[in-house]
Amino acid sequence: MARRHQDYACGEGCPVEATLEIIGAKWKGGIVYHLLSGEVRFSELGRRMPNVTARILAKALRELEADGVIARTVYPTLPPQVGYRLTENGERLRPAILELHRWGSRSRAAYDVAAE
Questions:
Q1: Distance between CA atoms of 8 and 75, rounded to whole angstroms?
Q2: Which residues form the HTH hxlR-type domain (predicted)?
């Protein structure tokens, strides 16, 4: 895991902070969500997340790979194709990501009703 903090021994909330340090960037949660269904190619991730630039998507994927959340496979085709999938460690995020999805759906629905 690529550690950004020098020390995670900062108290009771540190496991949450450490997790959010890894998946808390704007696009990383969405990437992990899209990989829950299996391996996805870079171009398909771009289509599923149309508001992220290719540069930012590539950066987020590199960071998730460095943190051991995803694995990258390069296929020997012309042009080369790259697929991404969750690692065993990344799969452990499944319940949390699905709960974030449910929470976001409920919250967004409540917001939409309140805005009417």
A1: 37
A2: 14-112
- What is the residue-wise DSSP string for 49-97? STTS-HHHHHHHHHHHHHTTSEEEEEE--SS-EEEEEE-HHHHTTHHHH
Closest of 87, 107, 98 to residue 29, by C-alpha: 98
Q: Choose among 29, 58, 55: nearest CA to 42.
A: 58
Contact 72, 84 (CB under 8 A): yes
* Residues 6 or more apart in contact with residue 73 via CB below 8 angstroms: 39, 82, 83, 84, 85
pLDDT along the chain (116 residues), means of 10: 57 77 91 97 96 96 96 93 96 96 86 64
- Residue 29 CB neighbours (<10 A): 19
CATH number at residue 66: 1.10.10.10
Model pTM? 0.83
What number of other Cβ atoms are within 10 A of residue 32's Cβ?
23
* Total tally of structural domains belonging to the chain: 1
